[in-house]
Amino acid sequence: MIEWISAQPVLFWLCLGGLLLIAEMLGTAGYLLWSGMAALCVSLIAWLLPIGWPLQGILFAILTVISAILWRIWLKRKKLSKEAENLNQRSHQLIGTKAILLSDTENGFSRIKLADGSWRVYSDTPLKAGDKVQVIAIDGITLTVVPAI
Fold this sequence. Notes:
The protein is of the alpha+beta class. It has helices at 2-7, 9-25, 33-48, 53-77, 82-85; strands at residues 98-100, 109-114, 117-122, 132-139, 142-147.
């Protein structure tokens, strides 16, 4: 068996890469993905160039580390989209929404209608019924609004 593996390095790296990618699908959150990709790259390089086992092992280690570092840098630069940030906070998706006040503000509070519901709103400035407002923040079930421009 060892003789067969040493005679077929391309198949060894293909199998190792495939096994690492299969293990990644079981839920390792990206840790084995880059090792599997590095093994597949080493398989391709070993198929194209006649390099020995020591150089293949070094190449595998270097490719794994480089790809993991690049992946980490990419993740740090990537920003979550606004939809992803508010995925489980539906009320936060209302920020930026414009609506019309249903009644004059009393002590800063009033109501607006959004979709099929009525929402309690708060404004620092006195507003009249029919004024167009924009939601700027949410505190519990109260929307903070400002006059819309």
